[in-house]
């Protein structure tokens, strides 16, 4: 079976996986508990023979997405289609058959291998469950598989604890290969291994892809590894994809501010490297109550200022950081919730400006008046009033509507309002943005 040229091998459409954190039956009955929107409307394609890298900070939903694509988790919405069969809507027997086509390689090979079984039994289990080869040929097939992954046929009689981390991962790969899959979801397959053995596993995966025409979804937080192995890359933030493209498109000219920040954190071996690391404000918000509009707006270094003011991007970012802190603050905690500096001056509004890197005076008089009001409320300990004043005076388009994943300046898909004609940025800002992109183009010289 092969997918036609224009049909992807696997396609997810508006895929959702929400967990509920209700503790027990009574909680669920009474509707108590929270919804964790781990995967929240993902469109994604994996093509025949390619490696799609999936990157994003810890907790953004990568593993949940990988497991939902595979059917290890039931989606709460959307569809997954393998070739021309919708997995999310097919009969049990057919699903059981198709399960062999998509396999999973886990991050921690020790935890995923049954210590009570020999390696031969682990790798052979799937052969008997799915009746892949006749019983009399199973041992031979297991021995072949072990040799394919760089182990010895004689290893079949040993137990997982007798192997090193890298060898255990090879056993996990042999087990996945046993059912002759077309697609393997590799979930952080080398991150638990010593750097010295990582290359061996990556080379093995690459050789197997070449020999067997496999496709991979390669989940990893190590961006250098992803750049090395992937044909295309998808960047995920808080349950959604924010940028996808070929590896060159995403790594050489990242357009989404989140991708820029992620890539700027890759350690750079070149001592002449001129790019600065982009430090994002705050922590990743909770997927139980994600920010409205663009989920990244609470941390985005390029959050779009309100059109009615003439505001510098940096000044607006600083105001948004204060707004986000106010939104999260316990109103009873008073000023301490915003500023715990021991060196507070008499003028608390000046201390707040300093603590949040807000200029002493904004260039736009209306913006300055609104900000001064809010700071005075905050300095007086009335955090509710400060929060409301800032929210009504400094609303960004990034929080009012959700950006769709659509063609950006380099034609690969990006979910960011900066590239939407409705939110026209003036020429200076767009030029600054392009210069900024160039500065972060990997490999560029100062
Ligand atoms: N079974 C579960 N019940 C409730 N919430 C869960 C469950 N599994 C994961 N989550 C939550 O879903 C979100 C996404 O988790 P997931 O493990 O998919 O992210 P990830 O990007 O793979 O993270 P990491 O890189 O750390 O493995 C997190 O907030 C996590 O706490």
TrEMBL record:
Protein name, entry field: Oligopeptide/dipeptide ABC transporter ATPase
Gene Ontology MF term list: ATP binding; ATP hydrolysis activity
Domain of life of the source: Archaea
Cross-referenced Pfam families: ABC_tran (PF00005), oligo_HPY (PF08352)
InterPro entries found in the cross-reference section: AAA+_ATPase, ABC_transp_ATP-bind, ABC_transporter-like_ATP-bd, ABC_transporter-like_CS, Oligopep_ABC_C, P-loop_NTPase
Annotated GO biological process: peptide transport; transmembrane transport
NCBIfam families recorded: oligo_HPY (TIGR01727)
Region annotation (Disordered) ranges: 427-446
Organism: Natrinema versiforme JCM 10478
Biased composition (Basic and acidic residues): 433-446
Family membership noted in the UniProt record: Belongs to the ABC transporter superfamily.
Keyword Glycoprotein belongs to the record: no
UniProt keywords, alphabetically: ATP-binding, Nucleotide-binding, Transport
CDD domains assigned to the protein according to its UniProt record, in alphabetical order: ABC_NikE_OppD_transporters
Domain (ABC transporter) ranges: 10-263
Parts forming coiled coils: none
